[in-house]
Amino acid sequence: MVGSPESSFLDMKASSPESPPDLEGSSRSPTIVEPRRGSVTRYFNSNLSSRNTEHILLLCWFITGLIDSTIFNAYRTFVSMQTGNTMFLGIGSANFDATTRPYGWAKSLTSLVCFVLGALFFSRFGTYFQASRRGTLTASFLIQAAIILLCAILVQTDAVEGRLEYIGENIDWIHIIPIALLSFQAPGQVWLSRDLQFAEVSTVVVSTMLYDFGSDPDLFRKGNGKRNRRMLGFCALLVGAIVGGWITKKTGHITVSMWVAGCVKLGIAGAWVVWPAEKGVRWWGC
Predict the structure, then answer these.
(1) Residue 47: φ, ψ to 5°
(2) Planar angle of CA 44, 39, 273, nearest 5 degrees
(3) Taking burial as the number of CB atoms within 10 A of a residue's CB, which of 71, 88, 91, 234 is the most buried?
(4) How far apart (Å, rounded) are the C-alpha atoms in residues 183 and 189?
């Protein structure tokens, strides 16, 4: 009996030399080898868990108080609290402090402009590289730490005067360098608070945070996380300001505060390297 044309064709295809026999049996599916990304790349591209990240923000509050109190003691301007700089700029425009702080408005204006530029940089940086990634957070704080440590080196080597007794009210334009650099890195902390969705603790704004604290309808409710973060953030800022004030008073120099702030931010960058990944995934040993 002659088979159909279809069955003949299938029989011919099965016996064709172009189709090698299945030597391992039909029960095992063929193995498909896919290119594998390096474990280090996968590790730093992982999204981090936001659990307990408010502790990082508390350290950022501390750094804000430490740096601002130190820089204000030395150069009579702020690098994070831009409300004060706005007031100094307005007062300076009327020459009200021309005898006590000549060109003080220039320092405040420099800080304001560089703060905005820093906000532009860190926000775009986070958007482009995906803010919640381990590598993005680590790189961001490495940049901030490097800027602060650069300022510490400039002052330590006397490239910029950091001794309080030699910093007069008359402006020395080289003081603009640390003011500009420190103001540029400060928005990196604000970007972090937005990325972690802790908008109630921006790490630089106090007035709004205090209002939100006092007007919270659940102010006296047990387990109010936002209230607790606001209160602890304010305390961390105050402690940082006190520490910065005492360090500059005892040493007569701003270098120590710069080294402390830079090392703390370097430690935060290291913390992101080992921080747990999102959804509790453990990446140790990748």
Answers:
(1) -80, 140
(2) 30
(3) 71
(4) 11
